[in-house]
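Re: your question from the hallway

Yes, I did run it. Sequences:
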Amino acid sequence: MNAKTLEELAAYVGGSVRGDAAVPIHSVSTLESAKEGEITFLANRKYKKLCLTTKASAIIAAEELESPASLLITEDPYYAFAQIMDLFYGKPDLPESCISPKSAIAQSAQIGENTCIGDFVSVEENTRIGRGSRIYPGVSVGKNVQIGENCVLFPNVVVYENCRIGNRVRIHANTTVGQDGFGYATHRGIHHKIVHIGRVIIEDDAELGAGCAIERGALDDTVIGKGCKIGDHVVIGHGTRIGPHCLLVPQVGIAGSVVMGHHCVAGGQVGIAGHLKIGSGVMIGAQSGVGDDIPDGTKIFGSPAFEALRAKRAYSLIKSLPDMWKSLRKMEKKLAETADAEEHGTARR
Amino acid sequence: MNAKTLEELAAYVGGSVRGDAAVPIHSVSTLESAKEGEITFLANRKYKKLCLTTKASAIIAAEELESPASLLITEDPYYAFAQIMDLFYGKPDLPESCISPKSAIAQSAQIGENTCIGDFVSVEENTRIGRGSRIYPGVSVGKNVQIGENCVLFPNVVVYENCRIGNRVRIHANTTVGQDGFGYATHRGIHHKIVHIGRVIIEDDAELGAGCAIERGALDDTVIGKGCKIGDHVVIGHGTRIGPHCLLVPQVGIAGSVVMGHHCVAGGQVGIAGHLKIGSGVMIGAQSGVGDDIPDGTKIFGSPAFEALRAKRAYSLIKSLPDMWKSLRKMEKKLAETADAEEHGTARR
Amino acid sequence: MNAKTLEELAAYVGGSVRGDAAVPIHSVSTLESAKEGEITFLANRKYKKLCLTTKASAIIAAEELESPASLLITEDPYYAFAQIMDLFYGKPDLPESCISPKSAIAQSAQIGENTCIGDFVSVEENTRIGRGSRIYPGVSVGKNVQIGENCVLFPNVVVYENCRIGNRVRIHANTTVGQDGFGYATHRGIHHKIVHIGRVIIEDDAELGAGCAIERGALDDTVIGKGCKIGDHVVIGHGTRIGPHCLLVPQVGIAGSVVMGHHCVAGGQVGIAGHLKIGSGVMIGAQSGVGDDIPDGTKIFGSPAFEALRAKRAYSLIKSLPDMWKSLRKMEKKLAETADAEEHGTARR
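Structure:
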């Protein structure tokens, strides 16, 4: 890694320097672990006091603060940190261009310039992979697939036939794109398979974690919108359309034919039932179970899920159910005694 | 795709035609997207009015209805649609027969006629794969495995040694069959592995989604019954026996030594604890947590799960807990005031 | 399998014999299925009466009991059973040593003695794999990885660059180790990737199930402690540190930057939010959702999770919510009537 001066980094992210602009920075770290020559960041005020003792040479921060380190002041420190991480470490670890002789590429497949195909990769007939893409070992790409430019498919990813993958898409290891959806016509106790002819379309700049499973549509396509970031082990049902820039945290499951807007966030292990309409900007708390349409901009929580503030209060009261139960029984008894006393004229008074 | 006349399709599914029996049909679609030359279906009356405006040339329906399209009348339209999808599109996309020179097949393995083995497939000693099966690239099949006829194993499926797979079984990409179960003997704080010598047996006509994990038994076999359809990311524990024709929706987890009857349905993300007996025809709502034996024909819901109708009412009342809490506190206060008043003879009256 | 006498087995596990010490044992089974020549065990008194009718030649038990079978008496029968299973069946099914000519091993990679590399395994530059390890077909190991001695990586496991795996670690099929964590800096509606430079460190004697996904850290390492046993489909977030000897049951999800102590147990489908501190010896019931730090030795349950005994009582009361609701409404009505009656001087008495 070549070192950069703090001034160079400030220029790169569009920020300004307080302190030693010439200090050389060669790496990144946390406030707690940073050593000389490293830059770190303060995005959460909770950690402000760590700035007093950090050994880092520089801190990216939104405002001036007390620290032995020099400062790189910028509006959005975490974003600046992401940019600097990318500057230092964002290079792919595959060579610039190579087609492994141990791969199996169909004659009719088209591989773009500067694209790297690893060992034991199989690419079927009529498939196109754009320039600058990196296909790691063991990936299997079916027939008639289109993969755009500068994509990365990590080892053992599987893409079924006819799927469409945009530009700069990253798909982590062991993820499956385009398997048949869970669709059967049950006739006299036998479940008959619905053949699936829809595709999966993954738009530009999306990233999928490891071990995901994205079902192809039965008739319509399944769509993962532009810029979506999807965690490990997320399952998306057939014909579901996820709008742009959504964040789906690991282990989320979305059933089929759901339409989700843009900029939604679903927390870990969330489940969404089929055929629902989820608006834009919807935030869904971890482990929630969603069974109804959700309007734009709503925050929801719980299983079953409803408006988050009320839901947090309501679910936290489950803890008090034994007390409520006791209290109810006590009052019932009291009321019964009173009634009884009144009936028989034996009230205390 | 060769076109068929509506009359030919009606004969194929055992239905009758209203309208133009000679209209050529070359594809399938939804009521909304269908174009001339396409057939669609009406299985849910909710969408009946779309029949008035559909551009489809034919609709499969259970009864006569108003539409510009011709009708294919049959008792179970969704099943007929499944049959026609299969007729048009049900062909495998691997060639009829080929053994890739880039596969690795042990000398003692037996591969049936018309079976296709893709690139980078590894088949270990003494394994048999029946005729007409299609093994996609990157699949790994261990020693002494038996796979029946007309099976499809999609890319990167792994089958561990000794497992048994019936006929016409389909297993989607990145699914694992036969890994050791989660079994350890904890002795003085150290977890000692239980060696697993049971097998996984997958019976005829079962289908497994992508990224599933089916544990082999420790001593007894794990069994997936005939005709079961299992969604993506389902995990089945060691020694569990799933009866025939069950539907397990994506992300279901069933612990070890469970015995499940036939024709059960488990919704998305359901969890079932170990050693339980689940009857036949049991329906388990999404995200339920099952901790008790369940008798035949029961519908259950919730975590913890109980009878579904009561459970839906009960879980929906969590929303009202803050109101119940307030109401309780109010009554307690009132009763306390009354008691106090009576005590001191200061009751209003 | 060569038979052993019961006496030999007793000596092997440090127990003593009641009955025929010379009886030959060639296999293991359950109390119900065992046949002559087989040994079984009684670890749960619930099954004691099966000992009266078992066809096994020997039973491992903690104390004398009535049975036609001979007995192997030892303090911890299940542990003894695990040892005997291992004695009979614990051998790996790969040959002692081989490097498949169909693998792809970088020139700078170092492979230890007696290590077996299967077909279509890819090992990148500067990676070291210790002696006696078994790497099954289709495994992909990135650059600069270190894997210790006597490890087993089952088919299609993926290990990303720079990760560290200790000795005697077992990783089941289709598991991913070291993919990027779910970390993005959202700036003006666009999610910018945080480049991940931390590693995954898996310590000695850990076992990971099939289809797991262990994220590398962004800056700090993700750590799976010594002797941890992790079920299928477990997802561990970036920078999380799991202490030694924890048991994580299938489908558990742990978000990033969690610190968990030693000897914890998390039941199936448990979710743990990010940045939490989970003490040692913590037991978390199945499907729980953990949103707070948990002190040492605590048992918790529920979503949201709290102390297990109270939680079991509280969650079981959800069933009674409809009754509580009715009871509340009834009392409110009664109190309102009483108040009304008193107001108007029309009380019964």
